[in-house]
Specification:
2 copies of one chain form a homodimer.
Chain A: H1 8-19, H2 26-32, H3 41-54, E1 57-60, E2 65-68, E3 83-87, E4 93-96, H4 99-111, E5 115-126
Parallel strand pairs in A: 3-5
Antiparallel strand pairs in A: 1-2, 3-4
The structure holds a DNA duplex.
Keywords (chains A, B): DNA-binding, Metal-binding, Repressor, Transcription, Transcription regulation, Zinc
Cofactor (chains A, B): Zn(2+)
Protein name (chains A, B): Fur family transcriptional regulator, zinc uptake regulator
Chain lengths: ~130, ~130
DNA sequence: TTGCACACGTTATAGCATAACGCAATTGAT
DNA sequence: ATCAATTGCGTTATGCTATAACGTGTGCAA
């Protein structure tokens, strides 16, 4: 998918996520945008829905947060599954794509005649810097 | 880990999950246990915490729900990562363990010097019965 | 110009999870 | 025996996450 022009709200939310060094919750984004006129959660969630649809933002299900895609110029939908390593100390996220893992999972799903639509692969732990 | 004797509350919660045909949210479990004297969410969450710790229950992060482990006699901690295929129509969950996927992910994590602690692999879509 | 699609704003509400308090039972070391 | 530590439990209150439902304005195509 090619990313359309972003609306004002979408741009604001995307900028906040791009500048952040760690994933942000929707409510944290809201707080960061109060000065630009944001007042309600829906303003954030609606922008996020679109950004997710465009593939420029990822949702981290295990921590109810959102990050900008680490591969801005590629198409996240085209390189298959995305995996995340999430540091529980510093919050940093490493994004990663692997065709081997993809294929293996897809083969299994196929053997079960399961039609995959969305996937979540998240590993929580400690990054190189934070691991004592 | 060997599973210790379950307390009354833990047994009640575990039974509900075992009998369920689909994952249940904590609040759904609460409602099903009101007749046995459950009154507050914490009663459910505390039991769930222990059952998760013992490895007899899994949490599905992407749908905020819980399922009994599909491999009651094995030790879920010993066979590494667990993956789930979750049907968005009927709610059915297929649980699955694959060493290939494990190793591939673990190798990558190692290359990043990332110390993994918890993992989430969840695929949402439609099962064989529900896929039109 | 009418109808449609879409983004937006607002209020209210639903759904998920935990903090903080106190009590009771158990265990185990001294 | 007794004291301290641990664990489970019950309750109230609260906080965080997400969406429903309503109405407005704008742009564009038939």
């Amino acid at each position: 998918m090619t990313t359309p022009m972003l609306t004002k709200n979408q741009s604001l939310v995307f900028d906040v996520l791009t500048k952040a060094e760690a994933p942000l919750s929707a409510y944290t984004i809201l707080d960061k945008l109060r000065d630009q006129g944001f007042r309600a959660p829906l303003q954030v969630y609606r922008a996020l829905d679109k950004l997710l649809e465009y593939g420029v933002v990822h949702r981290l299900e295990s921590i109810n947060s959102f990050v900008a895609c680490a591969h801005p110029n590629e198409d996240c939908h085209s390189h298959g599954l995305v995996a995340f390593a999430i540091c529980e100390s510093c919050g940093q996220v490493i994004e990663f794509h692997d065709h081997e893992v993809d294929h293996r999972l897809m083969d299994w799903l196929k053997s079960q005649k399961f039609k995959a639509e969305k996937s979540t692969i998240e590993i929580r732990g400690h990054c190189a810097n934070c691991a004592a």
